[in-house]
Amino acid sequence: MDDIKDFLQETKFCNFSDKSIQDLAKGIAKNCKNDREFAVSAFYWVRDNILYRVGVWQRKATETLIEKEGACTNKANLLVALLRLRGIPAGYGVMKVHGRKYLGPIAGPMFKKFIGKISTHVYAVVFLDGKWIKCDSSDDKEFCENTHYFNPTTRLTEWDGFKEAILNLDKNDIIKDDYPISSIDFWMKKKTKNAKGIPLKVANLYVRFARKNKIRVSDIGELENLFKKYLKREHAVYFYLFTFLSFFKK
After folding, report:
1. Average pLDDT taken over every residue of the chain
2. Range name among 6-20, 184-198, 202-216 with the lowest pLDDT average
3. Does any domain span residue 162?
């Protein structure tokens, strides 16, 4: 494992010295009496104020803050930046997972062929009271509340600062889980292989649709049908391009 000092360092992507990160940290710290309370408050701020999206992880913490959206990697990185600014050792957990399974039923037939067989999931870890604690802020509250009833993976993740806060993943879908890692800059620089172009655009329209959808569905097929109607009505060009690409994708 890296030296504990490495988990306090600023990096190119974990750029916590920027004023925007400092101002946010000051705001979060106002009602916090100690490091644990700050860590928990920062977790909830990132969880619900940075909306979950897929792909596009090549973002600095400051860029994620500006965009107010981020993949699991971006949300973990922003949380780590806030914690390190406070002087709390924090790092990353990096999972290798079965890409077409670990998201649960919500990644239905419409999108599975565009998801890599092996994917990477990143979450934050924080060092409190002499031990590392996992705290995964990936899925925002609104997304969870509107999807968890048919997709167990998006059960809302809560954290008290003592126990681990992890996504409700099927253990059989996790291939490898490495933590704590002090820097993932080398990985964040990499170009995406599967999450790009029209499929990525449509996937994120789908995530936003699922987050806002108030019509209760019985299964993923029903949700996908609702989304297809929405996509054709509101984004016809993407609908036809995605349909064309799907025809040739194995």
Report:
1. 95
2. 184-198
3. yes
Classify residue 207: in a domain, yes or no. Answer: no
Helix (H) / strand (E) element for 176: namely strand 174-181
Question: Could you tell me if 80 and 124 are in contact, meaning their C-beta atoms sit under 8 angstroms apart?
Answer: yes
User: How far is Cα 127 from Cα 211, in angstroms, rounded to an integer?
Assistant: 32
Residue 150 is assigned to a structural domain of this protein:
yes
Long-range pairs for 216-225 at CB < 8 Å and ≥24 separation? 216/149, 217/150, 218/150, 219/105, 219/150, 220/105, 220/106, 220/108, 220/109, 220/150, 220/151, 221/108, 221/109, 223/106, 223/108, 223/150, 224/108, 224/109, 224/110
Inform me whether the pLDDT recorded for 71 exceeds 80: yes
| Cβ neighbours of 38 (radius 10 Å) | 22
The band of 195, judged by pLDDT with boundaries at 50, 70 and 90, is low
What tens digit of pLDDT does each residue of 99-119 get? 999 999 999 999 988 888 999
Looking at the structure of the chain, the number of domains it has is: 1
SS3 content of the chain, % helix, strand, coil (to 5): 45, 15, 40
CATH number where 65 lies? 3.10.620.30
In this structure, is residue 195 part of a structural domain? no
The domain of 181 spans 4-189
The DSSP result for 72-113, as a single string, is HHHHHHHHHHHHHHTT--EEEEEEEEETTTTTGGGS-HHHHT
Q: Which of 8-17, 144-153, 211-220, 241-250 has the lowest mean pLDDT?
A: 241-250
Would you state the torsion angle of the CA atoms of residues 99, 104, 110, 112, taken in this order, to the nearest 10 degrees? 10
